[in-house]
Amino acid sequence: MPSSPIDVLARHLEHVSLTDPLTDLLDLPALAEVLDTVPDPRSRRGRRYRLGPLLALSLLAVLGGATSLAKITRVIAGYDPHLRARSGLPGTAKLAASTLGRLPPRLDGDAFDTATCGYLASLAARGPPSDRTPLISLALDGKTLRGSRTPDTTVHLLAATRHDTQTVVAQRQVEAHSNEIPAFTPLLSGLDLTHTVITADALHTQHEHARHIIAAGGHHLFIVKGNQPTLHRRLKALPWREAILNDRTDETGHGRREIRRMKICTVRPGLPFPHAAQAIQVKRRRTDHRTGKTTIVTIYAVTSLPPGRITHAQLAALIRGHWSIENRLHHVRDVTYGEDHSQARTGNAPRNMAALRNLAIGALRLTGATNLAQAIRHLSRDATRPLTILGLT
Prior knowledge:
Layout: H1 5-13, H2 28-35, H3 51-63, H4 69-77, H5 81-87, H6 97-101, H7 103-106, H8 109-124, E1 136-144, E2 156-162, E3 168-173, H9 181-188, E4 196-200, H10 207-215, E5 219-224, H11 229-236, E6 247-253, E7 256-266, E8 278-288, E9 294-303, H12 312-336, H13 349-366, H14 372-380, H15 385-389
Parallel strand pairs: 1-4, 4-5
Antiparallel strand pairs: 1-2, 2-3, 5-9, 6-7, 7-8, 8-9
């Protein structure tokens, strides 16, 4: 068995040039081999199907809109025997519902996240050079799987997601009766943070988090609120009235108009946060067209990015990009895939189903889909259409 899913994928892609269409990189047999690196929880006795092909075909079903284990099983059972044989499963054997029903709850969540996130990260990194921004930006954000609620606990996941492609490159389950803060460093420990900027909400504006990111070769951009009272007070006291306007955006949509004005101050010595090079103030003026009500919110942030490292417009885009993850990833999982209404609660099933949804959403994003709900509806109307996402016909 290969030692790493990244090694497997690199071997499959070693002869592919960076100018090749990304759709050529999404390959079902290659994905099946990557997923075969996940430890198989089943007993060897009576095992009829390889783990990797089972999980790869499950992705096809999720791409076609399957929202539960029962639906995934029905879709796989209905696939053409030649496709199942090509993926590595016996083409003639009948797939029992219990085969998949018992698998996700027992599957190692850390290993499955490592394989799926590593697969997406490798594909996202092979985009054309012209599409690359000066820095790779990763948003760290958490999500509670409300459908997983039991009398004892609810599954909560912390994920690192690329701003540009909304692909989840790392994910970790938060320990029960804890919060996201202890999961921050372990989540990033397996990632190469060189030329990467990490964006995070105020919960993660922690000194140790900033030091870890800088030590790993990356940069940080943290929102600052009342949980860091001294830092927040010092930021508010900066001479913002004298500062020039660095960026302004004016957007209309969803029944409202939103104007954002950003100012930047080069940090004076003594700001109580590690490696802070610039302080940022964003004033957000939002007018509701229906009610006519206008609200103004002022937000502060600090970043280790030195002046001139990126443009002011790119810095403003980093802040907006972090907030967009909620709509472009979590909203799709909740509304299109019904994640909050999922009845999968046993073992690791909630987490592993979330990983499959991340994999499907990432695959769609990487092949150019913008309206994911529309794309999934299109794929669901014909069982052969999801094959095109993975380079099959």
